[in-house]
Automatic annotation (TrEMBL):
GO biological process terms held by the UniProt record: Mo-molybdopterin cofactor biosynthetic process
TM ranges: none
Gene source species: Arenimonas terrae
Family of the protein in this entry: Belongs to the FdhD family.
GO cellular component: cytoplasm
Protein name: Sulfur carrier protein FdhD
Keywords, in A-Z order: Cytoplasm, Molybdenum cofactor biosynthesis, Transferase
Main location: cytoplasm
Gene name, Swiss-Prot/TrEMBL: fdhD
MF GO annotations: sulfur carrier activity; sulfurtransferase activity
Pfam families (UniProt xref): FdhD-NarQ
């Protein structure tokens, strides 16, 4: 008799640990973030394997596909199955044949990482990709504090575990679409996917991390005109933001921020 189908694991687990304070130890229960290998499979062909939080996986599938320019609009992607095995989760997706052919031309790199790095890239010349111009967001980069305050309040997994990143997409109506993940790029993909699955138009991206090249590039692919991070950007991220005509803000904490691009 076949075993019961495996279920997607929860995003966190409780484990016993021993805490030491000033030399005094005590046993207690800790809540830890889960991480799982998630394979992104297009038309039956594996493209990438990411270490990710096993939650909001349909958002992840769409957001990754959009920010990596695998598809251009949500209607081009269908998640046809979610296979759970002892080794991880496989997101089985279908895309139009023309999109799949273009993906095949890129070359693939099957890697296991925590949502960082250059997905599906096996050549140095393909690593730093051109960025497309983006529309201005219409948001005042000096008035982002209320959005970051709202983002802070919508991180239940990080509140329990202290181990995950968060990203928020601000849409054209001023609504926030917040997602969490152990990987900062995964959190961005999930937030973008959540916004687009809701039929919203993304205009800004807020992240609880630094702003790297990949963060800016993903935002540009999603048509986002403003990126704000609580930490610093990299120099390459600033150059890319300038190229895209994007507003790039770092050290966005309370009433303080530094505008690096799009001034």
């Amino acid at each position: 008799m076949a075993g019961a189908p495996r279920m997607i694991p929860p995003p966190s687990r409780e484990l016993r640990a021993r805490r030491i304070d000033d030399g005094i130890g005590r046993d207690q229960v800790e809540t830890l973030a889960e991480e799982t290998a998630v394979a992104l499979v297009y038309n039956g062909q594996p493209h990438a394997v990411m270490m990710a939080t096993p939650a909001d996986l349909d958002d992840f599938a769409l957001g990754f596909s959009l920010t990596e320019a695998i598809v251009a609009v949500p209607e081009e992607l269908a998640v046809v199955d979610r296979l759970v095995t002892a080794h991880g989760i496989s997101l089985q997706m279908h895309i139009p044949q023309a999109r799949f052919d273009a993906l095949e031309q890129r070359g693939r790199s099957l890697t296991g990482r925590t949502g960082c790095g250059l997905c599906g890239t096996d050549r140095l010349e393909a690593a730093i990709r051109p960025v497309r111009p983006v529309p201005r967001s219409g948001l005042d980069p000096t008035r982002l504090a209320p959005y970051f305050a709202a983002l802070q309040e919508q991180q239940p997994l990080n509140l329990r575990t202290g181990a995950v990143h968060a990203a928020a997409v601000v849409d054209a109506d001023g609504e926030l679409h917040v997602r969490e993940d152990i990987g900062r790029h995964n959190a961005i993909d999930k937030a973008v996917g959540a916004a687009r699955r809701a039929g919203a138009t993304p205009v800004a991206l807020l992240v609880t991390s630094r702003a790297s090249y990949e963060v800016v590039h993903k935002a540009a692919e999603a048509g986002i005109g403003l990126v704000a991070a609580i930490s610093a950007p990299t120099a390459l991220a600033v150059r890319l933001a300038d190229e895209a005509d994007m507003v790039l803000v770092g050290f966005a904490r309370g009433s303080r921020c530094t505008i690096y691009a799009g001034r």
